Amino acid sequence: MKSPKWLKRFFARLFGYATSRAQEQRLQEEIAEHIALQTADNISAGLSAAEARRQANLKFGAVEAMKEDHRSQRSLQPFENLLRDLRFALRMLRKSPGFTIVAVATLAMAIGANAVVFSVLNALILHPLHIPQAETFYGIQHGNDALSYQSYPDYLDLRDRNRTFDDIAAYDAALVGLDTGENPSRAWIFLASGNYFDVLRLQPFLGRFFHASDEHGPNSAPYIVLSYAYWRIHFQGDRGVVGRVVQVNKHPFTILGVTPPGFHGTLVFFNPGFFVPLVNQEQVEGVNDLSARGHRFIFMTMGHLRPGVTPAQATADLNSIGSYLEKTYPKDDDQRTFTLNRPSLYGDYLGKPVRAFMTGLMLLSALILLAACANLGSLFGARAADRSREVALRLALGASRSRILRQLFTEALLLSVLGGAVGLWGSFVLLGALSNWQPFSRWPAQLPVNPDANVYAVALLLTLVSGFLFGAVPVRQVLHTNPYEIIKGAPRGVIRGRITIREVALVVQISICALLVTSSVVAVRGLMRSLHSNFGFDPESAIIADTDLSMSGYSGERALQMQKRMIDAVATIPGVQSAGLIDWAPLVSGGTIDSRVFRDADTDLRPANSVAVSFMYGISPEYFQAARTTLLAGRTFTWQDDQNAPRVAVINLEFARKVFGSATNALGQYFKRPDGTRLQVVGIVENGKYQSLTEDPSPAVFLPFLQSPSTQTYLVVRSDRDLAQMAAAIRSTMRTLDPGLPVYMGPWNQELATTLFGSRIAAITLGVMGAIGAMLSITGIFGMAAYSVSKRLRELGIRMALGAQRKEVLQAALGRAFKLLAIGSTAGLLLGIMASRVLASIVYQATPRDPVVLAGVVAAMLLLGLLATWIPARRALSIDPAMLMRED
Amino acid sequence: MKQKTDVPQGTLALMVLKTLDVLGPLHGYGIARRIEQISGDLLAVNQGTLYPVLLKLEQEGVIASEWGASENNRRARFYRLTREGRKQLQVETQDWQQTAAMIERFFAAKAEDLS
Question: What is the ipTM metric for this complex?
Answer without folding.
Answer: 0.83
